[in-house]
Amino acid sequence: MASHGDDDLSTSKTEGFTLGEKKTVEEYAKLDQNDESLNRWKASLGISNSPALPVDPSDKRRCVIQSLALEVQGRSDIVIDLTAPGSLESLKSKPFAIKEGTKFYMKAKFKVQHEVLSGLKYVQIVKRKGIKVGKDEEMLGSYAPNTEEKPVYEKRFAEDTAPTGMIARGHYDAVSRFTDDDDHTHLKFEWSFDIAKDWK
User: Fold this and answer.
1) Lowest mean pLDDT: which of 47-51, 182-186, 190-194?
2) CB 189 within 8 Å of CB 82
3) Is 191 exposed, middle or buried (0-12, 13-18, 19+ CB in 10 A)?
4) Cβ proximity of 130 and 109 under 8 Å
5) How many CB atoms lie within 10 A of CB 10?
6) Which of 11, 91, 95, 131 has its C-alpha lying 20 to 30 A from 27's C-alpha?
7) How much is the pLDDT for 121?
8) What's the CA angle centered on 4, arms 2 and 6, to 5 degrees?
């Protein structure tokens, strides 16, 4: 299989958009405390008075992706645990099956630590027999570090549909990347799946 280049995993850019000055959670919390609309925006980021979760100071990651899941109505979620030892290395060699034509959602569970995370995005390239057949990008949003009140974030992606037909059935390889407005890669991994006539 051809390697997945980093260029393929680049995210779309909004022309004219520039990142604002970085601020700490404390600076955001104190910012214009009497401004009702700004307070609603800060609440949407998860900035609150709830105590922050303790963070290992030696863990410099700003975003810890814990799992990805495939949600299909009427079935148990297929969960990919990204925190277990060796989990990333085994993803590509242990494909899971998706029934052709199935409507599904992807879900990500993650933690944010140290500072506000701006513009978390998920991008994925799918290849079949080395040929790129799809690229998906999902804006997940901006988040404050997790608190005792909100120890983990879960984001459900837009609905998707598995392809159908004899030609669509078979094995697919994918590479996924979680990145942000700073174009920092929080996690990149390869995995695979099969489109099948029925659930296995």
Assistant:
1) 47-51
2) yes
3) buried
4) no
5) 14
6) 11
7) 95
8) 145
Give the rounded percent of residues in the chain with a pLDDT score beyond 70.
76
Q: How many Å apart are CA 77 and CA 71, to the nearest integer?
A: 5
- Contact criterion met (CB below 8 Å) for 188 and 9: yes
Tens digit of pLDDT for each residue in 51-110?
778 888 899 999 999 999 999 999 999 998 888 888 888 888 888 899 999 999 999 999
